[in-house]
Amino acid sequence: MEPLPLNLQIQGEGFPILCLHGHPGSRQCMSVFTDYLSRRFQTLTPDLRGYGQSRTSQSFQMQDHLIDLENLLDQLNIQHCLILGWSLGGILALELALKFPQRITGLILVATAAYPRGNHPPITLLDNIYTGLAGIINGFIPGWDWNINTFGKRSLFRYLIQQHTPTAYQYLAREALPAYLQTSRYATQALNQALRSRYNRQADLDQIQCPCLVLAGEADRHITAESSQATAQHLQNAQFFCYPQTAHLFPWEIPQQVQSDIENWLNTEIL
Predict the structure, then answer these.
(1) What Cα–Cα distance (Å) separates residue 80 from each residue in 18, 104, 183, 206?
(2) 77 lies in the same domain as 210
(3) Mean pLDDT computed over 103-118
(4) Are residues 72 and 195 in the same domain?
(5) Do 215 and 114 share a domain, yes or no?
(6) What does pLDDT average to over the chain?
(7) Is residue 83 one of the residues assigned to a domain?
(8) Mean pLDDT of all residues in 195-213
(9) Which domain holds residue 85?
(10) Which GO terms of the cellular component aspect does the record hold (predicted)?
(11) Residue 103 and residue 97: Cα distance in Å, rounded?
């Protein structure tokens, strides 16, 4: 399949960091990283194929994301870069590092794994009702304590976050909801196909030599902290942090802590 030109946001100046969002997601969901990192680096944040404004009218496979991203780096004439990937974006980051070992100089892997495993409980009708109500109300009044306590903590949000703070719910309203609405069925189909095939690149990770930072939420139900830790253990040069009382969206729960740990790693391993 031909590469798809991706909707792209470029911020800042300096060494490039390619920032890749998860599913459902969009480039806006990465602002918790890019608004901070772009003070010292150039952040390149695309909407992946089938997400946000990178729209497609045909089905595709996960491999097509890699074709698009390689084309993006070639068009921008980027010979070396770091990659920050969240969830699905982290899986794509690993794939790019395996494919272009000389081009990728470091990885920041957030809530992701080379062999992603989850332990999400079955979803009930009441879960969906509470989630719909919490999401709609939060869209109109982001971070409202009454909504958080009445619906949010009983909804599926309880598996995405553990710290039900107004800040986390403001991110959900401002970035997660629009991303969810803009995620195409083709993107969902491509991801589900990869998961059904039992995607597992753990055995290949010893080929990645660049420095890696692996971050996980202790209570992540979508990609467990244990699977993220296993990824770190199989990498040749990795640091691993697991944050207590957080889940899959932990960068929105504890943004300052995550930003601080990323900065310290960059200062120690990269700069």
Answers:
(1) 10, 6, 29, 20
(2) yes
(3) 97
(4) yes
(5) yes
(6) 96
(7) yes
(8) 94
(9) 8-120+183-270
(10) membrane
(11) 8
pLDDT band at 215 (very low <50, low <70, confident <90, very high): very high
Q: Which amino acid would we find at residue 176? A: A
State the DSSP code for 121.
P
Mean pLDDT score, 123-127: 97
Please check whether residue 37 lies inside any domain of the structure: yes
Residue with tokens 């069925």: 185
Q: Which residues pair with 149 in a beta bridge?
A: none
Residue whose structure tokens are 């553990």: 162
Predicted confidence (pLDDT) at residue 231 exceeds the cutoff of 90: yes
Whether residues 99 and 115 fall in one domain:
yes
Do 142 and 79 fall within a single domain?
Answer: no
pLDDT score, position 60: 94
CA distance 134 to 270: 41
What is the distance between the alpha carbons of residues 144 and 166, in angstroms, rounded to a whole number? 7
24, 136: one domain: no
Once rounded to an integer, what is the mean pLDDT over residues 74-89? 97
Residue 259, both tokens: 């930003």
- Provide mean pLDDT across the span 122-140: 96
Helices assigned H by DSSP within 103-208? 125-140, 145-150, 157-160, 166-171, 177-182, 185-196
Structurally, how many domains does the chain consist of?
A: 2
Domain end residue (candidates: 178, 194, 214): 178
Q: Does 3 fall in a domain?
A: no
So what's the pLDDT on residue 271?
74
Task: Say if CB 2 and CB 47 are below 8 A apart.
Answer: no
- Claim to verify: residue 100 and residue 82 sit in the same structural domain: yes
Spatial distance between the Cα atoms of 166 and 43, rounded to a whole number of angstroms: 27
Q: Which pLDDT score, from 0 to 100, does residue 73 have?
A: 97
For the record, the structure tokens of 71 come out as 């084309």
Examine the pLDDT at 158 and tell me if it is beyond 80: yes
For 48-101, give the DSSP string: PTTBTTB--SS---HHHHHHHHHHHHHHTT--SEEEEEETHHHHHHHHHHHH-T
Global pTM reads 0.96
